[in-house]
Amino acid sequence: MTRAAARAGIWLLALAGALGLNATAATAATPALSEQALLTRLTEPAAQLNSLPPGLSVTQLSSHDLTGGNIDGGSYDETAGETVLPPTFVGMEDGTYVLADEPGPGCLVRIWMTGDTNDTQGDPGSFGNLQLFFDGSSTPAVNEPVDEFFAGKDPRFPAPLVNDYLTSSGGNYSYIPFCFAHRLVIRVTGALTTDQNYFQLTFLHAPVGTPVQTYDGDGEAAAQAAAATLGDVGQAPASAPASSISTSVSPSAVAALPTLAGPGTVRYLQISVKPFDIATLDSLSLRVSVDGSREPQVDLPLADVFGDGLEVRPIRSLDFGMDPSTDTGYLALPIPYSSQAQISVASSSATAAVAVSAWTGAPVRTVDRLYGEQFTTQTRIGQDFPVLEATGSGHLASYVMDITDAGTPLSGESGGQWFMEGDERVYVDGLRSPSIYGTGTEDEFDGGYSFNQGAFTLPFNGAGPLGQTAITDGGTQSAYRVYGDDGVIWSDGLDFGQQAGGDNERLPETATATTFSYRGPQLLFPSDSIVFGNAASEQTHHLTGSFTRVTLDAYFEGARDGTIPVSTLAFGGTYYPSPPPQASNESYEAAGIAFQTPISVTLRIPRNNQGVVLRRLQNQTTPVPVDVTVDGHGAGVWPGAAFQGNWSKRWLESDYALPPDLTVRRSTIVVSLTPTDPTETATAYTLQALSLNSR
Questions:
Q1: What is 265-315 written as a DSSP string?
Q2: Up-side HSE of residue 95: CA atoms within 13 Å toward CB?
Q3: How many Å apart are CA 239 and CA 279, to the nearest integer?
Q4: Are 132 and 142 spatial neighbours (Cβ–Cβ below 8 Å)?
Q5: Where are the extended beta strands (E) located within 445-547?
Q6: Cis omega before residue 263 (within 30°)?
Q7: How far is CA 501 from CA 407, 638, 687, in A?
Q8: Taking the mean position of all CA atoms in its chain, how far away is CA 237?
Q9: First to last CA, the chain
Q10: DSSP code of residue 573
């Protein structure tokens, strides 16, 4: 039996006995996570404001270079050792590669792949068949040639919920939700080639006991209906707008709609501008203030509101777009307000004719508000450029990226668009390990190979044409992504950054990141933590079990991974070396414990919690999942490292949401951690409890 199969068997045994009360309730309740429910959230912007169960998180597995370099097409060496790249697959089963073996409950909400099959960049055929196994079944519910799956040839998976590299300009994506109650195994049957098989797998995870309707292959009608709704994206409602204004603006002037009285929701904004050119759209800003806010929650150039800050072109996405032939643009993201909404268009330097129309609808039950923000950055050596930095709670709705790159001799190859080699790194709730780590700038927008099919526009993603700068290996590029079920969720802050070039060596580059997000109050609060190695802390928290003392000085993956932003190749490159951790100020040293048998600690929590999240710092050299119990009740399996571990960047900090039934109305909990494989050693360098509030 392979390691993957053995681990999966242990997970199923653990989950089968976990939370019998919750399991009974789940079968009787309407599933909170299902293909139908998530398709609605994906295709109807207003549905994104519906409440989701507490404790949900969005994470991503990808083929990114685990050493921090630029071999982002994966490492598939079956004999991997510490002299080669850490592998980006779980193991081999029946001659196939296991790309993921995820414990439930959860949903696979996005698949992105690309490859270079028979010298055709973008063709994912080398992955072979995509196989999805649900909840321990030995028969795959999905078993499709990858190229046919993304081409929409199966009626269960229609376009534009899926699209191939010819349509999505070098990338292949799926937004079909595949939900699972206990376990999902993802396999591919092809002979994978290192650095040529790129993938990203985005998951929505939930605490054990969350009601889930496991994917059963019977969702064709729901998928077809959802795909049909996407054919009308960008269309203004047929009814008359609730409010309109038509006027001219001059520099420093403002065209404002009459104040909208609440409660209500702005469902659609249409803005006409003459002249409709990039200079005018860049100098006009949309401003939105709700509920008496002194500062607008949205204050953005119209060009980026419409999806492209570099050029005027037809765009039709689910959330925004523009039609140069009619001199109009639109914003379809819902804008909720309780008492009032003030909407205006302000000019910084342009003189233009402006017409604004707003369609409103019934209020939605949410405390979240729509925010539109923009960072413009001159890239700096060794630093990710900021996309979004947020406090409180929220979820990401969309991202528009505008890059102007002049190129330097430090990096890039002539005409190589090296500036697109940067990966996104997304940190949530103060975690030191990224929850999302990408494989390249164009990949993040569901494209590939520097958008090798040119400009395109789709409901969830699109890109403008590559523009040329004076230096041949520079250029300009705009792209957009609309997030649905895959939009990152945070409860106590977000830090979303992106590399400039293979390892932040790209200068000079001007990066503009425009985001829309729904934001609310902080929901996650520190409650208690044990300090390993501190006798008083260990005694206070009643640490018990058999363990050994350990220390580790190592790197995290991500922005503080110790890599030096100069490639080992003269122009551009693949490998970015790191000094020994002891010689770098980016390393981290801590004391902890290692254990093969159960350990237990008592953690204090507030009685009014709506759930508790555990946070653990561990050594991810090998993947060691642990069985979690709370006061003797099973709470599921806390995964260890992704794939087969990472011996290059050894630190991993991750969260695990406990079922609320085990924490509400309790002031202390006894948490036990047991390696699911008694022959392997798990570690804990910090262990914290954080309490959740409801929205």
A1: EEEEEEEEEES-SHHHHHHEEEEEEETT-SS-SEEEEHHHHTT-SS----E
A2: 5
A3: 32
A4: yes
A5: 456-457, 461-463, 475-482, 489-490, 494-498, 509-520, 524-530, 544-545
A6: yes
A7: 10, 34, 35
A8: 31
A9: 45
A10: -
Q: Where does residue 292 rank: exposed (0-12), middle (13-18), buried (19+ CB within 10 A)? A: exposed
Residue 211: partners with Cβ closer than 8 Å, 6 or more residues away:
25, 26, 29, 30, 31, 32, 33
Encode pLDDT of 31-46 as tens digits.
679 999 999 999 998 8
- What number of CA atoms fall less than 13 Å from residue 319's CA on the CB side? 31
Helix (H, G, I), strand (E, B) or coil at 572: coil
Distances (CA, A) of 391 to 334, 407, 494, 606: 21, 34, 6, 22
Exposed e or buried b per residue across 658-672, where buried means at least 16 C-beta atoms within 10 angstroms of its C-beta: bbbbbbeeeeebebb
Q: For residue 103, say if its preceding peptide bond is cis, omega within 30 degrees of 0.
A: no
If you search the block for the tokens 């729509």, which residue do you land on? 370
Closest residue by Cα to residue 13 from 150, 183, 166: 183
pLDDT surpasses 60 at 258: yes
Residue 115 DSSP code:
E
- Domains, the chain, with CATH or none: 3-232 (2.60.120.1390), 238-365 (2.60.120.1390), 367-521 (2.60.120.1390), 525-692 (2.60.120.260)
Task: Please give the distance of CA 278 from its chain centroid, rounded to a whole number.
Answer: 30
- When pLDDT is cut at 50, 70 and 90, the band that residue 101 belongs to is very high
Provide the residue count of the chain. Answer: 695
Report yes or no on whether pTM surpasses 0.90: yes
How many Cα atoms within 13 Å fall on the side-chain side of residue 264? 15
pLDDT tens for each residue of 379-400: 999 999 999 999 999 999 999 9
Q: Are 183 and 108 in contact (CB under 8 A)?
A: no
Which tokens belong to 140? 């795959």
Q: Look up residue 650 and give its two tokens.
A: 């050894």
Q: How many helices (H) and strands (E) does the chain have?
A: 9, 47
* Residues paired with 245 in a beta bridge: 356
Beta carbons within 10 angstroms of residue 282's beta carbon: 17
- Say which DSSP state 393 is in: E
Query: Rounded to whole angstroms, what are the CA distances from 160 to 178, 258, 317, 515?
Result: 16, 38, 11, 23
Task: Scan for tokens 């003189």, then name that residue.
Answer: 351
Cross-sheet strand order for the sheet of 129-134: 91-93, 96-103, 183-188, 129-134, 142-145
**Which one, of 103, 108, 188, lies nearest residue 145 by Cα?**
188
Pairing of strands 424-428, 436-437: antiparallel
